[in-house]
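Q: Convert this sequence to structure tokens.
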Amino acid sequence: MQELNDPSSESAQQFRYLQTELRERWRGIEEFDSGDCDIIIIPSLSLDQKEMQKVEGVYHYEERHLFSLIRLRNPRTRLIYITSEPLHPMIVDYYLQLLPGIPFSHARDRLLLFSAYDASAKSLTQKILDRPRLMERIRQAVRPTKSYMVCYNSTPLERELSVKLGIPLWASDPDLLYWGTKSGSRQIFKECGVPYPDGSELVFNAEDLAEAAAALWERQPHLQRMVIKLNEGFSGEGNAILDLKPLGGKAPTERASAIGDSFHNLRFQATGETWENFSSRIPELGAIAEAFIEGEEKFSPSVQGRIVPSGEVEILSTHDQILGGPDGQIFLGCRFPADESYRIGLQELGWKVGQNLAKKGALERFGVDFLAVRQSDGNWDIQAIEINLRKGGTTHPFMALKLLTNGRYERSTGLFYSLQGRPKYYVASDNLKKERYRGLLPNDLMDIIADNQLHFDTGTETGSVFHLMGCLSQFGKVGLTSIGNSPQEAEEMYNKVVKVLDRET
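A:
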């Protein structure tokens, strides 16, 4: 493992050789996806595992990648899908039956499922690496010269697995991980000329963080609040709000000390978080202070893009994120597409970021989160907040839309069109969660879907498709994507699901 973290090591060189091989195979997305190949799906959330435990039912998030079954539309593609625990057969059947134009049995024969049989709080990739016999079975199941790996995010663990299997990873080299952190994102925004909030440099202890926050306040004396962020936090779970109003009477020379004292009163976005735990992560993960952007009419849009092996940047989608938590910092879901008044401008800012990432050697998915605040003249002030150098919460809903309609995204309008030329809209969430839903098995959910006609209708290309079904029984949580022919219809379909689940439970 240590050797893989050394860019000059033989293993790291082998990883780069495998990625070069992937670039040589690339002949445009259509040919790449329609060729004869074996795709290994590693849906491991290889993020900081202590931070991951803030998300209830987190290992079930491996199910979000089941929309990768879209690849089985190509009758020559084989898919190898690996999970921590075995998937419920009904969940797998649910996705296969959504595939348009492919017989269920034909798709099922080309899907191989492997499991580590390990629900512990380790990343899935680590679990696979800990099981050499499982790795050998995976290796024997694929054709090395016609295979590639896909993952949720790329870390030294995924790099090690790629080298040990001898299969290229379609993802960024982990040496580029810094560009997906809070401080790395801010550096790229500066290089691109993309607007972003004033904030601090990266620090690694609470004293320096207080000094950095005081310096930010000195530069921005009108600030009412700041966001304190763990550098490697995700989904807003590593954020906290510092209220400056109680400190308004402090002289500039007293501010750093006063801010340090007030860290104990931070309003944490993650449920159950404390300053004791939060501060213990700062030496390990680093932290920044950032200006909190105020505004009466404020949205949190995002851009999703992809850098293909040839180096080209593609914009895939825009979304308005649905946020929750005490101060609207926690990702709950999204609406597609982003608001018409700013989505084309968002695409251009996202494309600038993608171009910068491509020059640095990044590959595959990236997302950029923004804040949009309407000004008194009616225009939008758009500020970039962070880059996700991985798949994210907006990836699988968009994959669901492609899976179900086989349509296309049109960058000139920022809309997605079905094969019939109809623009499509959706509302999606990972966090439809209520105590009363606990105890529902996947079979129960299927009964409710059938009895209440909640399924996706291929004729109208509207309806709801579910994910995170394995989370329901223990955590009372499920995900869904509700697709309509208008934003209103998508919203109504989402609300119908909530109403039905409430009634049935």
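The chain has a mean pLDDT of 90.
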